[in-house]
Description:
Blueprint: E1 6-13, E2 16-24, E3 29-36, E4 53-54, E5 68-69, H1 70-75, H2 83-91, H3 97-101, E6 106-109, H4 119-122, E7 130-133, H5 135-157, E8 163-171, E9 176-177, E10 181-182, E11 186-194, E12 199-205, E13 212-215, H6 217-228
Antiparallel strand pairs: 1-2, 2-3, 3-8, 4-5, 6-7, 8-11, 9-10, 11-12, 12-13
Amino acid sequence: MEPNRPARICQVYGKFARFATLYDRENRIPVYSAFIFTPGPLPCLFSRREEWFIEPQLTYSNRPPEMMLMEHLYNSEHKPRPKSDFCQLITDSQATDCDYAASGFDKGHLNLNCFQFAEGRDATFTLTNAVPMYENFNRVVWSKAHENVMMSGLLTACPPPFVAYVVTGAVPSNRFALGRVNVPDWIWSAICCSGNGYNIAFIGQNDPNGFAKVVPVTELERQLKLLYNHFVTIFPSGCY
Length: 240
């Protein structure tokens, strides 16, 4: 599961840490995002936006760890370089809006915006939290699986003061959008309720005719062992 060129990102927005991501610079997609389930009022209307944030620290090690719009990052340079050179620097290590614009793929959240609230929701719109997903899989199959099963059942099974921890990941393939951004074959998600042991997991095939199914965390780990070709433990405590 560890990529060749990993980046461990603390996703910061509005000067607050929002969630964590293990990022694959080579495939230009996240391996997984880990976060706490903190939804706002239901029902949640899944929102979309054209311009997403990028992660400056993947290119500039001296930058504060806060996501920015690409145009804002360029304008903040003290000695602006030609924009073509700037864009090349950024695209060497991460995806940009341009990678998705002509690809035919959705920017598919790992940390879904409906799993967060207020500014936490805005923070999910960073390209280091997105993978290319087929439209029907993203907007119907994957989102409905979470909306119908998790958004309702999880709130009942893991009420306050318990805390629901979520890890959502992507299994890379040999396919690339526009030759640059890996199009994962599988998307998976695991949830652990700290305090009462409740757990639930999902795995879905990222395909125009893909599917998603609910499985126990132990079954998800078994399937991920086959897909990644090594043992996978999602929650150190087990949560089962």
